[in-house]
Design a protein that fits this description.
With 111 residues, the chain is mainly beta. The protein has one domain. It has no helices and 9 strands. Strands 2-5-7-9 form a 4-stranded parallel sheet, with no helix packed on it. 28% of the residues are buried.
Length: 111
């Protein structure tokens, strides 16, 4: 019999490339804590997307084009992207973060 581990490593979600995220006019936020996040599908919508959280390092990877050209896309992501935490963002496709403005603010400040 083996003992159960005292801690469990968080599992980072990796949605299918056939699924994307719609950011409505009220906006949305990603804050993964200690985990990393890989999004293989496109973003769409017009709200502001904020990357926040209290943990200083996370990796966000975006692999889908979010300018409306992704197969099956109904619209582009035209909202702003706000980087409100330290971390790494990989945009591995043309316009992976959409066609809006990308802004940075210091962690702990309001958007």
């Amino acid at each position: 019999m083996t003992a159960a581990p005292s801690t469990v490593a968080p599992q980072a979600p990796t949605p299918s490339s056939h699924r994307g995220f719609f950011i409505g006019s009220n906006g949305g936020a990603f804050g993964t804590g200690r985990g990393n996040l890989t999004i293989n599908g496109p973003l769409s919508g017009s709200g502001t997307l904020t990357f926040g959280g209290s943990t200083p390092v996370a990796v966000y990877t975006f692999n889908g084009s979010s300018d409306g050209t992704f197969p099956g896309a109904t619209q582009a992501f035209t909202g702003d992207v706000v980087l409100a935490r330290s971390g790494v963002i990989y945009a591995n496709a043309k316009n992976a973060l959409g066609t809006g403005t990308i802004r940075t603010i210091r962690p702990g400040r309001s958007v």
